[in-house]
């Protein structure tokens, strides 16, 4: 069980409800402006309610075609994992939390922009909790995400937790940040931003790969959002963004929104060798929606795979 009776709230001033974000350290962010979570409380055995707010504009996860960016959902889930790991399960700061898989399915109409920021509640239940000597080493979280009380998405995520010494043993020389950064290969020139639904070259994470359905990953460790702080490998959110951009390239001139992503993380994406991002069109799902499989390989080994289900962004009601 998690710590019982845990609750975090900010109370009010008179009759007014006050809102602020959780401490950035709890969500493994260096910039407070990148924190989307606003509060949390426990609601039962290994069950929690987490609140979040999505801004109407964001430097990277900005709206498009009147819709919030679906990857805001992925980042909100990513932030919830360390928050609950620290405050509810006692994971010390400095431990590494590593994704194994993450799946989400969302209702596209619920992404519609409004005149005010989107207020979210994430109802989280934790399962398959594994401990070693009372320390958390892994679990699965299930999410029901509501926007102003209405269904937005469902999701699951599995992850492991590693003490610093264990992480160093797992990573070997790659666990040393200076060594990892010193071995970085040159970053190739990007594809045209408009082809991946971007306005800025700096936000493009793919480069031409010399063949249809194949691109090179661009790893820009100076990017203020994808690399909010120094890390020794390409983070999961970079790989999800690469998948999203690859799906858009595969879809051509039709702007698409990823309604669902079923993602598996199997290996670390290192800085010292090219990462190849490949797509394959799949049969439509039972509702006739397009599906694209995205695979990321490095040194001929698969390190990431996702199945993305999409809809035309301009046809979301």
UniProtKB/TrEMBL annotation:
A molecular-function term among this protein's GO annotations: transferase activity
Protein name: Transcriptional regulator
Organism: Streptomyces agglomeratus
A-factor biosynthesis hotdog domain location: 26-160, 195-312
Lineage of origin: Bacteria, Bacillati, Actinomycetota, Actinomycetes, Kitasatosporales
Annotated TM spans: none
């Amino acid at each position: 069980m998690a710590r019982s009776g845990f609750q975090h709230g900010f109370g009010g001033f008179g009759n007014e409800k006050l809102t602020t974000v959780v401490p950035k350290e709890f969500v493994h962010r260096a910039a407070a402006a990148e924190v989307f979570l606003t509060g949390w409380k426990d609601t039962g055995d290994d069950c929690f309610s987490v609140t979040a707010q999505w801004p109407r504009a964001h430097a990277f996860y900005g709206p498009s075609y009147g819709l919030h960016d679906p990857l805001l959902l992925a980042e909100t889930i990513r932030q919830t994992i360390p928050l609950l790991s620290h405050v509810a399960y006692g994971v010390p700061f400095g431990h590494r939390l590593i994704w194994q898989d993450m799946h989400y399915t969302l209702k596209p109409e619920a992404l519609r922009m409004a005149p005010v920021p989107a207020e979210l509640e994430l109802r989280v239940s934790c399962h398959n909790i594994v401990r070693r000597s009372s320390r958390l080493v892994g679990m699965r979280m299930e999410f029901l995400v509501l926007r102003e009380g209405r269904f937005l998405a469902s999701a699951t995520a599995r992850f492991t937790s590693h003490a610093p010494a264990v992480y160093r043993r797992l990573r070997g020389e790659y666990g040393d940040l200076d060594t990892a950064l010193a071995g970085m290969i040159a970053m190739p020139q990007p594809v045209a931003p408009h082809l991946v639904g971007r306005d800025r070259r700096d936000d493009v994470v793919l480069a031409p790969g010399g063949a249809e359905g194949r691109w090179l990953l661009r790893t820009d460790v100076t990017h203020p959002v994808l690399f909010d702080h120094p890390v020794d490998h390409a983070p999961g959110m970079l790989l999800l963004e690469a998948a999203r951009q690859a799906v858009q390239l595969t879809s051509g001139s039709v702007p698409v929104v990823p309604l669902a992503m079923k993602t598996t993380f199997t290996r670390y994406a290192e800085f010292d060798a090219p990462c190849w991002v490949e797509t394959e069109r799949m049969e439509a799902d039972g509702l006739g929606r397009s599906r694209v499989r995205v695979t990321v390989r490095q040194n001929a080994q698969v390190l990431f795979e996702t199945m993305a289900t999409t809809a035309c962004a301009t046809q979301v009601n």
